[in-house]
Automatic annotation (TrEMBL):
<feature type="domain" description="C2H2-type">
    <location>
        <begin position="112"/>
        <end position="139"/>
    </location>
</feature>
<feature type="domain" description="C2H2-type">
    <location>
        <begin position="5"/>
        <end position="32"/>
    </location>
</feature>
<keyword id="KW-0479">Metal-binding</keyword>
<feature type="domain" description="C2H2-type">
    <location>
        <begin position="33"/>
        <end position="60"/>
    </location>
</feature>
<feature type="domain" description="C2H2-type">
    <location>
        <begin position="140"/>
        <end position="162"/>
    </location>
</feature>
<keyword id="KW-0804">Transcription</keyword>
<feature type="region of interest" description="Disordered">
    <location>
        <begin position="80"/>
        <end position="107"/>
    </location>
</feature>
<dbReference type="InterPro" id="IPR013087">
    <property type="entry name" value="Znf_C2H2_type"/>
</dbReference>
<keyword id="KW-0862">Zinc</keyword>
<protein>
    <submittedName>
        <fullName>ZN614 protein</fullName>
    </submittedName>
</protein>
<dbReference type="GO" id="GO:0000977">
    <property type="term" value="F:RNA polymerase II transcription regulatory region sequence-specific DNA binding"/>
</dbReference>
<dbReference type="GO" id="GO:0000981">
    <property type="term" value="F:DNA-binding transcription factor activity, RNA polymerase II-specific"/>
</dbReference>
<dbReference type="InterPro" id="IPR050717">
    <property type="entry name" value="C2H2-ZF_Transcription_Reg"/>
</dbReference>
<feature type="domain" description="C2H2-type">
    <location>
        <begin position="61"/>
        <end position="88"/>
    </location>
</feature>
<keyword id="KW-0677">Repeat</keyword>
<dbReference type="InterPro" id="IPR036236">
    <property type="entry name" value="Znf_C2H2_sf"/>
</dbReference>
<keyword id="KW-0539">Nucleus</keyword>
Length: 162
């Protein structure tokens, strides 16, 4: 359709005025939706509703394979990677409320899954590197200033500043 509503800030065009108004929050920093429990603010109502599950404990997404429940669909999808080695290449897609889709989807990642967040990796060393991001382990120290990093690549980038 015609895109008659144009953002004066960046030129992006929208077919609905409502979508332009929501987009403009990127530029203004407006966050009109506030959590009544912790006062955290959001630019989108859906993001507030998702956030509120932290406080309510609601977990509407469940894994068809093991029954484990999750607050957000992205957490479920990460978890499903842990089942990839049981049945390589597929994992059952689950809808809110636990209803199951008969259509399989491609499982991302690989057979080495992080027990903390469910993210999958194709090799064990990549999993080990990732796991440092959870534990705060920083084995790579800058010889010039002592600043430490969890990944060798981050140290290399940092060393360019000296």
């Amino acid at each position: 359709g015609e895109r008659a509503f144009i953002c004066a800030e960046c030129g992006k065009a929208f077919s609905l005025k409502h979508n332009l108004i929501i987009h403009q929050r990127i530029h203004t920093g407006e966050r009109p939706y506030q959590c009544g429990v912790c006062q955290k603010s959001f630019s989108l109502k859906q993001n507030l509703l998702t956030h509120q599950r932290i406080h309510s404990g609601e977990k509407p997404f469940s894994c068809q394979r093991c029954g484990k429940r999750f607050r957000e669909q992205r957490f479920l999808l990460n978890h499903q990677r842990t089942h990839a080695e049981d049945r390589p290449g597929t994992a059952a897609e689950v809808q809110p409320g636990g209803s199951r889709s008969a259509e399989p989807h491609e499982a991302a990642g690989g057979p080495f899954a992080c027990a903390r967040c469910g993210k999958g990796f194709s090799c064990r060393s990549s999993l080990a590197t990732h796991q440092r991001s959870h534990g705060g382990e920083r084995p790579f120290a800058c010889p010039d200033c002592g600043k430490a990093f969890s990944q060798k690549g981050s140290l290399k980038i940092h060393r360019r500043t000296h």
